[in-house]
Amino acid sequence: MKIFQGNIASPLGFSADGLHAGFKKRKLDFGWLVSERPASVAGVYTTNKVVAAPLVVTRSAIEEHGQMQAVVVNSGVANSCTGSQGLADAYSMQRQAAEKLKLEPHLVGVASTGVIGDLLPMDKLEKGLEKIVINGNADDFAQAILTTDTITKTVAAKEMFGSDEVTMAGVAKGSGMIHPNMATMLAFITCDANISSQTLQLALRQNVETTFNQITIDGDTSTNDMVLVLANGCSGNQEILPETAEFEKFSQMLSAVMTDLAKKIAKDGEGATKLIEVQVVNAPGSKTARMLAKSVVGSSLVKTAVFGEDPNWGRILAAIGYAGADITVDKVDIYLGPIPVLLSSNPVAFDDEEMQDIMQDDELVIKVDLHNGNSKGTAWGCDLSYDYVKINALYRT
Amino acid sequence: MKIFQGNIASPLGFSADGLHAGFKKRKLDFGWLVSERPASVAGVYTTNKVVAAPLVVTRSAIEEHGQMQAVVVNSGVANSCTGSQGLADAYSMQRQAAEKLKLEPHLVGVASTGVIGDLLPMDKLEKGLEKIVINGNADDFAQAILTTDTITKTVAAKEMFGSDEVTMAGVAKGSGMIHPNMATMLAFITCDANISSQTLQLALRQNVETTFNQITIDGDTSTNDMVLVLANGCSGNQEILPETAEFEKFSQMLSAVMTDLAKKIAKDGEGATKLIEVQVVNAPGSKTARMLAKSVVGSSLVKTAVFGEDPNWGRILAAIGYAGADITVDKVDIYLGPIPVLLSSNPVAFDDEEMQDIMQDDELVIKVDLHNGNSKGTAWGCDLSYDYVKINALYRT
């Protein structure tokens, strides 16, 4: 597999674009993604009981029809907690986009992200829809879906399946209200592989637990977040079937794309100055290991300590202890980068200067060895800075 | 029942004091509390798997002997995550304090709070123990147990039991690493009632779920936290027995003292500028109602919005949605103070100036009516400010 510089329209048969429709003051805020033919589709959605209107519309289209050919997205207004009017607006967004693209409405997915509680300004949406052209600048799609993100998040990969080259690309947004459970944030992945919707869903499910579900910014699970994967078969490869070597290869490709996007989201967490990766090893099970890793990376006290470049490992052990896992904690090792700070649950002295070098880096790896099983799990997050507070105290007003 | 200005030594037969022993640079950091006779005792402890050494010592003394006559506490160093040496030090603290007070060691409880991972400086402890005198200034005890707290937290109450006046007093500390589960933070409650340890434990258990367990500052459950209640019987009242009207009266008194301390802890959360009280009503069960209230009050996004005085009610509904409760969310009402912002899950327009008045207050009541049952629950917390980040980025170094 080869990771390369590409965009969401790199796979054969896809085009994408983004523009300014007026949901936000100046920035791009309306994007669309179209395949030249109906594509297989798989999705995972927020587990929040409060589900935003566009998710209801998109999920029901996918569940009822199992194919998708286009996705339209706006940022700035989330169309969430907007009651019956919001749901009518989301259906209208789907129908109007379908008319413009000359597709059946059920082939069009809709997504929104931004402020919760405001109705979608339909006049601005119509202005956006009017301007849709095919074969635009796909890099603008990655821009158009952002909210408080500071950078676009894109990845592309190529792999041979038989004699056919399959290309996959992903784009994501997400910077706050990030604490995935099933799936959180918006991510769109395109692929020109020949694979059924059912098999695609299998591959997505298989990888979401170890990638997007292992990042946390602030512990808040959004009402709007979803991951959609579209595969249009344009590469001409033989159909990828479950429980085959080709499926494993495809799943690994998808895992690489999803892990890359997940880490990019964590690193661009609201106000973040550092990426934190927590590896838990020798735990009694993978699920436990992932849960422990996520507990550490989600701890406000660990996050503020990392922001302060303070090797406060006691907070790491405390977060392991309160995670709710059935584990023993009497022989725990903790490493900050390569430096051991706790061995067999007893503190270890370390060199302050060496430690300072590790803590000043913009990526910190925390490794926790439980010596209580042989499973491992990784989670990603970011530090908690003054800017997180600033961004969220002032986001709406 | 009458709440009055008192301190931890207000109940008959108790004395307390605090002094500077050197665990901290300048502030009081060593306190003790003594009863003139062995008292009934009840305790609840952190549910963190990582339990600090002093808790192990105190819990085992209570479990094995069921009485307590003195408690010694230091702040500045938590004696947590300190391995076998830390446990030996905690036992030594208990033994040395018992010698000084001429008591059996099992009648002495020990507690520590402060930085995790550092060994207890035993020379400083000895210096503190040397200076113990009976009948000191009980207000200094409340000072001596603080860490990042900005104010002392004390409450006292009186109530008649038959012809005897019973006095109860409580003191607590806690400002960060506050997310109780069973019990978190340090709280000591004294009482001169005649009640067995077993009945006292019943009353404590009954009230901890609705008071201390309903506050959260940062979602981090500490390794050191416990609540101890001592009742020495000095008031001479007839023994309070379970399942009697007198027990109910006693339990309500304890509830009032614990609720008062819990709110004081929430209001003095690290960096806090506002107390947030979340009331969830008409929920399918009390436990669900409490869980939902705690989810809202614990949301980083709600907390930052309150800090920014932004009526961002969408984040409140989102936190209800991701709490993991089995509820319906299609007819939710939300009020900020007296102002409705969501009725039957549809947004309601409000007057900006009226809202500004509510948001600028130093206490905000958020009420969520689920219309999905008839149980209620309350939780308390505080806003998330720049100072929370500052305090925790720089606490250790």
Automatic annotation (TrEMBL), chains A, B:
UniProt cross-references to Pfam families, sorted A to Z: ArgJ (PF01960)
Site (Involved in the stabilization of negative charge on the oxyanion by the formation of the oxyanion hole): 113-114
GO biological process: L-arginine biosynthetic process; ornithine biosynthetic process
Catalysed reaction equations from the record: L-glutamate + acetyl-CoA = N-acetyl-L-glutamate + CoA + H(+); N(2)-acetyl-L-ornithine + L-glutamate = N-acetyl-L-glutamate + L-ornithine
Annotated active site: 184
One cellular-component annotation, GO: cytoplasm
Main location: cytoplasm
Function: Catalyzes two activities which are involved in the cyclic version of arginine biosynthesis: the synthesis of N-acetylglutamate from glutamate and acetyl-CoA as the acetyl donor, and of ornithine by transacetylation between N(2)-acetylornithine and glutamate.
Name this protein carries in UniProt: Arginine biosynthesis bifunctional protein ArgJ
Source organism: Streptococcus pantholopis
Gene this chain is encoded by: argJ
